[in-house]
Design brief:
single chain, 434 residues, alpha/beta, TIM Barrel, eight-stranded parallel β-barrel, two-stranded antiparallel ribbon, 13 helices, 13 strands, 37% helix, binds beta-D-fucopyranose
Length: 434
């Protein structure tokens, strides 16, 4: 029915980025990690990023040129507080001025306070597994509230993908701080929950009642062997622990984590009850889980059972999972924002089809009763992809990494048409998934 193909009134289309991946010239825990040769390509350096720091206004214009009216950016804590207690007021003022210009240009700021990276001193002095981390984050959030966000009409995201930080940084040890320890992981997650609640208090006290939430990475899960009861049990445990445990903690104030042999806990998080005004969902793919007999007792892989081809980064192309995550989100009774969704498409030819099939899922979920308010595409432009470095291309705009020139891909026009008409039409001829 054609009426089902219209996005709701007031629905927002936007784009998403994160400071470290685009701004350039940032010194933080991740730049140290690169120099220590711990990324997939030990020689990869983020360096100048895509020079977003110097091209901010141009990038706001590119955002407008795809019909987007929201732009997700992050504040880099390491710029704000390069040494513990030494605050760079000029940096805060600069972030504020930029966001004011963005807003004046008709683009709503969506501001992430913490997107994976930390000042260099953080892990040595007040790491997440120590209670002191909560007060540090509160202080930083207050600075952002008073000196950046005050009076803006922004959406605020405290943490981007806390479960990714936890898995990568505290269980597998492959991203900073490079710890692999279940007990510390639980303590860290609990403190991030408390820090989120503390940040909300600061933002609401000093910047106004801005809607605030987190961005949760949601994975669809499937058993690696359909017939295997333990693989199937892992799917239930994985979905609960990875997708839901932290969100529930921010709703009812208690973190209940059950990952047998990895990390389990039941901890109260003071102040965290009802601490999200919206739910931010980042969706990319589905993972197949397989029980193995050695710790951590599970193996995780991307497969292509439907033969639709993996995305270029090697993740399963699985739009149905997006619909599933949005339907599950309904249980929280909160407005939902898709704060990231996108594809590593190095040819630039598959993104339109990707968008179309994911938007269909989104509209189905809306028809089913999920209150989705907006969709922010990852990403406005190609950028530095963490452990993968400069290989992936997630951008609506393709960036020449030598000249840093931004070029439109076919998805720019398609995105613009859908965003400005709020109507989902089929992608242009020739845009197929495979
Ligand atoms: C998400 C991250 C984002 C980007 C995309 C591809 O997990 O939040 O920074 O790297 O993946």
């Amino acid at each position: 029915m054609s009426s089902e193909r219209k996005f709701p009134d007031g629905f927002t289309f936007g784009v998403a980025t994160a400071a470290y991946q685009v701004e350039g010239n940032i010194e933080n825990d991740w730049s140290d990690w690169e120099r220590a040769g711990k990324c997939k390509d030990p020689n990869a350096r983020c360096g100048l990023g895509v020079d977003h720091w110097n091209r901010f206004d141009e990038d706001v214009q590119l955002t407008k040129d795809v019909g987007a009216t929201a732009f997700r950016v992050s504040i880099e804590w390491a710029r704000v507080e390069p040494e513990r207690g030494r605050v760079d007021e000029a940096v805060l003022a600069e972030y504020r001025a930029r966001l004011q210009r963005m807003q004046a240009a008709g683009v709503r700021p969506v501001v992430t306070l913490h997107h994976f990276t930390h000042p260099k001193w953080f892990h040595a002095q007040t790491p997440w597994h120590e209670p002191a981390s909560v007060a540090e984050f509160r202080r930083y959030a207050r600075l952002c509230a008073e000196q950046v966000l005050r009076g803006l009409d922004a959406l605020v995201i405290t943490f981007n993908e806390p479960m990714v930080l936890l898995l990568g940084g505290y269980l597998q040890g492959v991203i900073p701080p490079g710890i692999a320890d279940g007990a510390r992981a639980v303590a860290a997650l609990a403190n991030m929950g408390r820090a989120h609640a503390a940040a909300r208090e600061e933002v609401h006290a000093h910047a106004g009642k801005l809607p605030l939430g987190i961005s949760q990475n949601q994975l669809a899960f499937a058993p690696d062997r359909m017939w295997h009861p333990l693989d199937r049990a892992l799917v239930r445990l994985g979905s609960e622990a990875y997708n839901h445990a932290f969100l529930r903690a921010l709703c009812d104030g208690e973190l209940r984590l059950f990952m047998p042999g990895i990390a389990s806990a039941r901890v109260r998080l003071d102040g965290a009850r009802d601490s999200m005004d919206f739910l931010g969902i980042n969706y990319y793919s589905r993972a197949h889980l397989r029980f193995v007999t050695k710790p951590p007792y599970l193996d995780f892989r991307f497969k292509d059972p439907r033969k639709r081809g993996l995305t270029d980064i090697g993740w399963e192309y699985y739009p149905d999972g997006f619909g599933q995550m949005l339907r599950e989100a309904r249980a929280y009774g909160l407005p939902v924002w898709v704060t990231e969704n996108g594809v590593d498409d190095r040819s630039g030819e598959r993104r339109c089809r990707y968008l179309y099939e994911h938007w269909l899922q989104l509209l189905d979920a809306v028809a089913g009763g999920t209150d989705v308010r907006g969709y922010l595409h990852w990403s406005l432009m190609d950028n530095f992809e963490w452990l993968e470095g400069w290989g992936p291309r997630f951008g609506l705009y393709q960036v020449d990494f030598q000249t840093l020139e931004r070029k439109r891909t076919p998805a720019c026009d398609y995105f613009r048409t859908v965003a400005t008409t709020r109507t989902l039409m089929a992608p242009p001829d020739g845009s197929s998934w495979k």
